[in-house]
Amino acid sequence: MLGGDLTERGLRLHLEGLSGVDAVGLEQRAAALGARSIKTSSKAWALDKIIELIDLTTLEGADTPGKVRSLVAKALTPDPSDPSAPRVAAVCVYGDMVPDAVAALGSAHGDPVDSGGGRSGLVSVAAVATAFPSGRASLRVKLADTADAVANGADEIDMVIDRGAFLAGRYGEVFEQIVAVKEACRREDGSYAPLKVILETGELATYDNVRRASWLAILAGGDFIKTSTGKTAPAATLPVTLLMLEAVRDWYRLTGERVGVKPAGGIRTSKDAIKYLVTVAETAGEQWLQPHLFRFGASSLLNDVLLQRQKLTTGRYSGPDYVTLD
Amino acid sequence: MARLVVPKTYKLYIGGAFPRSESGRTYEVTTTKGAFMANAAQASRKDARDAVVAARAAQPGWANATAYNRGQVLYRIAELLEGRRAQFVDELRASEGRTAAAAVKQVDEAIDTWVWYAGWTDKFIQVAGSGNPVAGPYFNLSVPEPTGVVAIVAPQGAASLLGLVSVLAPALVPGNTVVVVADQAHPLSAISLAEVLATSDVPGGVVNILTGSPAEIAPWLAAHADVNALDLAGAGELDWVELQITAADTLKRVIEPEPGVPARSLDRILAFTETKTVWHTKALL
Lengths: 326, 285
Prior knowledge:
The complex is a heterodimer.
Chain A: H1 8-17, H2 23-33, H3 40-52, E1 54-57, H4 65-76, E2 90-94, H5 98-105, E3 124-128, H6 139-151, E4 156-160, H7 163-167, H8 171-184, E5 195-198, H9 207-219, E6 224-226, H10 238-255, E7 260-262, H11 270-283, E8 296-298, H12 300-314
Parallel strand pairs in A: 1-2, 1-8, 2-3, 3-4, 4-5, 5-6, 6-7
Helix pairs in contact in A: 2-10, 3-11, 3-12, 4-5, 6-8, 9-10, 10-11
Chain B: E1 26-30, E2 36-41, H1 45-64, H2 67-83, H3 85-96, H4 100-120, H5 124-128, E3 130-131, E4 138-146, E5 149-153, H6 160-172, E6 177-181, H7 188-199, E7 207-210, H8 214-223, E8 229-231, H9 240-249, E9 253-255, H10 266-270, E10 273-281
Parallel strand pairs in B: 5-6, 5-8, 6-7, 8-9
Antiparallel strand pairs in B: 1-2, 3-4, 4-10
Helix pairs in contact in B: 1-8, 2-4, 3-4, 4-6, 8-9
């Protein structure tokens, strides 16, 4: 796509040749998309869709096997008082917690999308790797971290890019690391665990950098581009997600390949999540609203969605006493 | 040239801020003779929901403040009200058509009510709690704890300031947070009281004041799963039996309506408490 063999210089010329982002226009567009009113049956549809797209996450130093098991229980039965609530797409944990998550899921472990493109009722396991969240480790450590998570049974890998190298302009290095990590996602049967590339947009300083990093991650073969680790502020914002969706859309127009987007961190209310759904549908297209192409990285969002869901079914406002604690 | 008066915009009081109603609605407040006084915000169910969210967020902090500190905070409200006596007297004379003497009496009583209830914060537990005799080497203690978030319909058409204070203060004493629907016809002193609360030491969200129609808002508060108690003091004109039934669905304490202004009483404080009983061994002594 860049023409000829890929060289550091070619990559740099391409990334720096991307048109600059109109920050004011981007933020206005995001604000306009966020102002849509989604009510009644549309809201009910959106709430269920949000649950189906959630990567239910626990990424704390204090995570225990017990906490992972309760996270899995919540992923499988989000609302014990209402079995009609769908299951989430995946649970997202640290690499060493993957065996606990896989064991807790048991027969419910698998691709959330069935062969017909519908809901399979299964939940996959995503693992963060490559010295998450800082990414400050040698490539050997990052690759071992990734291979270990895949060998433990992780279905998806969330990697962080080396922001230091990116900000220093060493795009080739970042590119090669993504390619190498992608190779480390290879399973024994020769298939590859999908790779989500975390850009950590809160540390990239400018929208132009976010656009360059998005293209870099897509060119290097990332299956998803993800906004943030959730460990730095600001985490996911609507304008940044819109910008990444535009990169994904442009890539699809060029190559016919669909790359996923995952905003993560800071999305805590149904209202916010619905804004993201609108933005996805209006930017990349409605076909992106499925677990292979769009995810929310979130933990507290699920409870808020369940409260709103209960409000729609019972007609009265619900409270935190009526959902399970994480 | 004659000076133009600058009339006050009366808004809601939610989470320590003064927002307009989310619905954008207002209603006219008139004097007893029907002359226009002000536009008050007409709260919607979503304002009530926001108020409950604010009250819930503020509840642990208020309940965990020491009883002595809560007493100081409530007493300070009385201090600030004293300084604004003239404003409240004027407002009551205009909106309720009271004589100067009656208005002064109501404001003074409202201030004294704050002082009376402020004194109870570090005393009601001794009065209502108990050390229970048990057959074994244990201390067995019962203590009243706050119920949580209390929704109140303030007395309607009786005495707008005193009525509000008489239902608000007792709920605050044990550490509850409150969403109160003010006197619909005379909401101005409620919002002026909110200004006093906002400049006193009461944390934002502990008191949330809505103006508008109790008939519209009360059913949503009664049904709200995150409200723990419902004081129907001023709901006598509404179908309050229906509200009680609705409240039972989510297991709320309910206080039935009473005519006029509720008298000061320890019972009103204890109505918004739950008794916790703890066992503690004597063996470690």
